[in-house]
Structures are given as structure tokens and as C-alpha cells.
Amino acid sequence: MRRSTRTLSFSPLVAGAAAAAILGGLGGSPPAHGAGPAEIVVGVVLPISGREAKPGQYQREGIELAIHQINQAGGVMVKEAGKKLPIREVFYDDGSDQAKSSGLVERAMSSDNVIAVLGGYSTALGEAESVMPDRYQTPWITTGAAASTIFSRGYQWIFGTLSPTDLLGFTTAEFLGSLVNHGKLLGATDFSGLLQKVKGAHADIFLADAHLQDYITMHRQYIQTGMVHQMISYGARGPEADARKAMGDATNYIFAGIWWSSKLPYPQVKRFVADYQAATGHPPDSWYPATAYDAVRTLAAAIEHAGKLDKTAIRDQLRSVQLKDSLLPGQVLHFGKNGQVNTPFVIVQNKPGDKTDIVYPPDAATGEAIAPRPH
Prior knowledge:
17% strand, 2 domains, 3-stranded antiparallel sheet
């Protein structure tokens, strides 16, 4: 177990326009006289060691960038306190371990006086953590777990910034259908296998669902078999820098359905990409930091609308809050009745030269899909 309150090293240039942008639309009442709490304590439980360390680290960076920018703007306006309060992060590394992850969320909620917990990267860790919020009546926002099963149990204190994986399957099938309709899948005949794991070399399309390390291992083995499919997708994995570095040109032309892309044509996305690069020294890798960044912003909006650091009031505001300058596709983040967002996915494709294009939906496309895959 690792606990810390470490923050990123931020350039002074990040704090100006970005700090104003992150709180855009939150408003706030002028401070009133009177004593009150000195800070807003938020727990963060993510893996920065173990098999999920890289995505967990990227999500942590997104969270810490958002906290830094909010605090640079003075904090979150809390009407009952009569002033803006800074956010303080209490961070735990769960080591990519389910039992540890659940225990650390419990510790944050029961012992650290947090008003909410963020985290739960991956379905396995999210499943483990999700049992604690209702027990301790503390809001929990998962920044990296999308399984519908987590949100189908009637829990009242859980929220998630990732659309359900069911929608990923639908979007992928819709995209593949659009290619077929335009004659790009030459010779494709077995469309019944589009939503299944394609078996053997008799299929035209290979679809799999994998996490980052599994994707790297599986694709290496795929290459070794000599199989050739017209299209390849590993679900929400594909453009990650580690995979492209490890396998080079073998990752070219892979498709991925992801929750966010740095190529989205929104002004707030361009600001975020620049600020993230300045803060961390590297560009955003795939979708990981964006959903975490917006989780903090949405929590801040809910706290401000609640006007007090009461967990029930904050939970109730999370149910209705709308972040109208969200980074996510569609630009509006709103939690559904079960606590999960339902924002669209984007389909991206790796291209030669470490390039990645959005290829679907058409109104966000930065390049055309290349299919069948060149041999």
C-alpha cells in the first residue's frame, strides 16, 4: 500500500487560461463571513504499480492536473463556508490488486474524512471498489471501469465517467457496417462474427477485448501465427504508446473504439492536451487521463451546486449535474439513472509513422479508414 499527496510539477503557464476553463460554468456566490472547513478532501485509489500501472498513472495525472487547475483558480466555491476551498488529494496505490483496492477505498471512506473517492481503473478493480460507497454513504466515481454489471446492482452512491462497454460493441458494429456499405470490406462474408471473437483464419475480421498488457501479448502471438484478417480490433486498446513502441509497424491499421481521443475537434480538448503536455512532459496516451480529469471537474461542479460538504447533498447533485464543456465526445457529461454516463465512443485507427486518426463518426473524422488492411 502506498499513500501520498504527491502532485505533479506544473508549469506556471498552465494555471492561467486553463484554470479559468476548468471552472467555466460553475459560477459561485461571493464569500460570506464565518468560519468553516479549510479544504475539500478527496480520496484517489488507482494502480501505479502492477499490471495496470501505466493506465493508472495516466489517470492519476489527469486527476492531479484538474485539482491543480481548480486550486490555482482559488478552489471550489462552497456557499455554506462562505468561500472557495482548495481540494486536497489523499492518494493510495492499490498495486492492481482487487482485495487491496477494495480495502483502500474502505480506508479512505472510513478513516480519511474524504467527501468522495475517485478511481477504480479496470472492471476488476472497479467491481471490488463498488461495494464500499453504499456501505459508507460516500460518493464514488470510477474513472476507468465501464462494465454494465457494476451499475446494474441498484447502488445509490456510485458514478462512472466511462460509457458502458455494451455501447462499444454497438458502435464498432455500426462502424463496420458503414465500411461494408461503402464497399471497403472486399470479400467479407461472415458478418455474424462481427460481435464475437473471430476464430481461426477463415474469418475476415478479428475482434478481441483486451487490456493494455493483454493486447500487447495477444497481438505478438497473433503475428507469430501468420494470420491475416482484413480488419483487427482489440476493443478499447490500440493507439497506446507502449504497444506501438513494443511492436512497431505491426500495430499499423489496428482499429480501436475508445472513450476519448486527443484528436477531437473541441477547443477544450486542445487546451487540455497542451496543459497536460506542459504538466507531465508527454502527450495524453489514448483515453486514460481525460475521463479522470472530467471526473474531478464534475465532482467540483456538484460540490459547488450542493453549497456544502455534505455527502448526501453532493451525491444528489452528481445525479443531476451537467458538465457542458466536457472533454468527452458530445461535449456534455451527465450521469444516467444508474450513475453511468452514456457519451458516444470514437473509432480510431493506427496509421504508419505513429499516427492515429479518428475514422468514426464521420463528423469527427481526421482521416479515412484504411480497410482491408494492407499486407
